[in-house]
Amino acid sequence: MEEGCSTLVRSLEQKYLDDDDDIVQDILFTGFTGCSPCKMASQRALELLVLNNMNIGTIGDTDKFATLASHVSEADLGWNQISQWSDVACILKNLPHLRVLNIGHNPLNPVIDHELPVSTLHTIILNGTHLPFKTLQSVLSVLPKVNELHMSDNQFKEDDDCDEPISTTVRTIHLNRCGFQEWSSVMNVVKRFPNVCSVFVCENPLKDVTHCKQFEQLPFWNFLNLAKTSIDSWISLDNLSKMTSITDLRIPNIPLLDPLTNEERLHLIIGRIHHLRVLNGSKITNEQREQSERFFIRYYQEQKEKPVQYKTLIEKHGNLEKLVNIDLTPKKDAVVKLVCEEKDVNQEITISLEPTILEFMKCLEPKVGVKYTRMKLFLFRGDGRSEDFTSSSYNMPLHYFKIEDDDVFMIQEKIVVTKRRRPPSSTSSSS
Q: What DSSP character marks residue 36?
């Protein structure tokens, strides 16, 4: 352990336990509902252990660690100074319920010099550890249930002499910020996980995606995240269209798409990659696909250079007429006539179409001299149609009714019938 480093047990006590050592010694076995975090830890109820960036160099008192942390299912020990595999072995051995382990950004020895016990981990985070493939293979060989592997912030050597599969159980692998510039570098890592389903390669200076033979040997690969990469050519998306097992793609924030509108990004990607089922987290419906394919055809109709998918889509949808730009933006105001025969009102006014019917009636009250609560409102259109506004339409905006200039609003005052009180009975009941 480096000079000045803390132990895991000491850091655990400082964060989760009282300073009184008696509490550590006095392990209670009663219910812990309503207890403080300190008491919960001392009652063996600690399940989530977060001790990242605490300058931890080794475990410390192994027996005490096994007692205090035996119920831990998730342990975050990232950004510490753990270097010895004997400490990793101690963690795996003494945490029987451990499912998630983060030992990323620790200076782990590149060569395993201690036997590791078999563990039931399902997620291990080794970001920034720069482990060789042989070492990674040895680690995962004692983790038969691991299905998610985090290897971001690592530098991988192209000439690594490990050609055998690293793990057949890993289904999800994270390779973000690994400095990949070529797709071959990505495949050099991914090909070592033959049953992989999901691959994250975000925030890499990757400029292209190419179809290669190694991809054909990964039949379960169906998800790819290329967010914040440096892809700047449609050729990469054409190559993705050849990788037919990938049905779920995330590709936001890349230079290629920066000049395009959101609508163009959506339609041009879907039109190019016919086998996609999910794009950037949104499911692609049959209606969405047809809309995108038709947009794709019209987008490239007038362009000299057409992508290879254009011919296929023409065969599917035929040559399409160019769409006429129609402004469907709702009108903001209209010039209408206001008529109230009872109050001798007949005038032309300009009204905003943004307010609701009820708000409009309140505005009419001073103009016609009828309280809005006693107002009956009708609309007569230029084509002879009419509209009778009832209470069910009061919360709807005026523009919903497609009001045009020269339409006529007619106001009538409701007749209020005063109820006559029943005269008091002349007879009274006796008790």
A: -
124: enclosing H helix or E strand: strand 123-125
pTM: 0.71
Numbers of helices and strands, H then E, in the chain: 13, 18
pLDDT at 419 over 80: no
Helices (H), 18-151: 21-25, 37-42, 62-68, 85-94, 133-141
For 313-429, list the strands marked E by DSSP. Answer: 333-340, 345-352, 375-380, 386-388, 408-413
Query: For residue 242, how far is the Cα from the chain centroid?
Result: 26
Do strands 198-200 and 223-225 pair parallel, antiparallel, or not at all (unpaired)? parallel
Q: Return the residue matching tokens 């990004």.
A: 265
Phi, psi angles (nearest 5°) of residue 149: -125, 125
Q: Backbone phi, then psi, for 136, in 5-degree steps?
A: -60, -40
CA distance 163 to 427: 108
For residue 54, which phi and psi values (nearest 5 degrees)?
-120, 20
**Which amino acid type is present at position 173?**
I
CATH topology of domain 333-413: Ubiquitin-like (UB roll) (3.10.20)
Domain ranges of the chain: 6-19+29-317, 333-413
Tokens, residue 148: 């998610």
List, for residues 323-362, the tens digit of each pLDDT value. Answer: 555 555 667 899 999 999 988 999 999 999 989 999 999 9
Nearest-angstrom CA–CA distance, 59 and 153? 25
Q: Which CATH number fits domain 6-19+29-317: 1.25.40.10, 3.80.10.10, 3.40.50.2300, 3.40.50.300?
A: 3.80.10.10
Q: What is residue 166's predicted lDDT score, i.e. its pLDDT? A: 95
